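Bug #77: duplicate submission created two jobs. Keeping one. Sequence:
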Amino acid sequence: MAQMEKEKDGPAQKNLKKGFEKFKDAQSRAKDLKHGAAEAQGMLQGGAAAKAGQMRQQAHTMIGELRAKVAGGEASWNGLKAIERRKMDDAVRLLQEAAQRGHKLAQLDYAQILENGEGVGRDLAEAIKFYTMAADQGLAEAQFKLGQLHDAGRGVAQSHEMAVLYLKQAAAQGHEGAREVLDEKLLAAAAEWRAEAARGKAQAQLNLGVAYERGQGVAYDMAESLRHYRLAADQGAAEAQHRLGLVYARGKGGVPADATEAAAWFAKAADQGHERARGELEKLGQRDDG
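Kept job's structure:
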């Protein structure tokens, strides 16, 4: 027993213990260094964001003063005096730098100047680039602007689908202008879909079914939604079949849940390669197995 104790405290064992202690100490230091680096990085990022915000505010004030002069007839963008030109150039430089640093309000301001040609050459392509940067950061006004530009085909290929996409993003954040424009577009679209649906167009019937289900452009009416989904589904529209399956699977809008009916419609859509319908069908199968 005494011999065993000596073996435990032998040179090799002591060296192993020392090595392990050094390893733990190095590991702890590495963690401290990593934590310190993360803190420093956070401080740098916070400082950069604050700096960008200050630059944007300074430029915003300078441009605001010039806008007031132009609005009051004391100046014009095409005929700025030398001192006003220098002020505008400085403001644009500050704004551009803040925008490139990722400040979303600066990106919006810079895009508006480029779109309107305020003291700079009008450049819609560059304006759309900075509107998109701000929109990707969730700025509702930038999303609204992009919706308008896509709808009018200004600086981009006209796309009502992209317009609606951006308008919906802005409206979802409570942007009243986007909500009003979107309502007008949906009303106009619903009227067009009604005419096409009456002529037997499956896509229009599907679109109208979605509109009635969501109450967009028309009053919410689940019975009408179901009727139009069925009209499109009977013509083989896979998305309409999928949506009918969802209505019956979930018992939506007062429609009684019916797993058998849901499975039948999901199967029709899945047979046409509709992946979400296939997934829903698998869920129903698992539910039945359970």
